[in-house]
Amino acid sequence: MDVLIAILVFCIVVAIAFWPARVAARKGHSFLGYFIFSLFWGKKAESNPWHANSLEWSAPSPPPHLNWGEHVPTVYRGAYEYSSPESAEDYLPQNRPPAAAPVPTRTVPSPARA
To answer: Which of 2, 57, 77, 78 is the most buried (most CB within 10 A)?
Structure first.
């Protein structure tokens, strides 16, 4: 009798768990389908899609050697200065110069060869 009760409880648990597992599997398949579609045919994101102020969003993708290539960006302000009066947008990236500041040019020196 105990074996029959155990089998009955097992069948009830399987029946209850079947539909949530099926729904989760379908959602997983739809996520996988959307992921593959966007990977091959989706719209390419811009270089700073979230309009972040921090410097890493100014690097090209994929990043070259030394992250920014030959020209090192100049930092003019902190990374968390949102809603600045200097900018019409809500964000102001660190490497964007102030309105009246001259733009310095800096290059990365070539490594010495031995």
So the answer is: 57
Give pLDDT tens digits for 87-100.
788 888 888 888 76
Position 10 scores a pLDDT of: 92
Spans of all domains in the chain: 1-31, 50-108
Hey, which bits of 1-114 come out as E strands?
none
pTM of the model: 0.52
Q: How many angstroms separate the CA atoms of 10 and 3, rounded?
A: 10
The ranges of the chain with pLDDT < 70 are 100-112, 114
Of 93, 92, 76, nearest to 84 by C-alpha is 92
HEC per residue, 47-65:
CCCCCCCCHHHHCCCCCCC
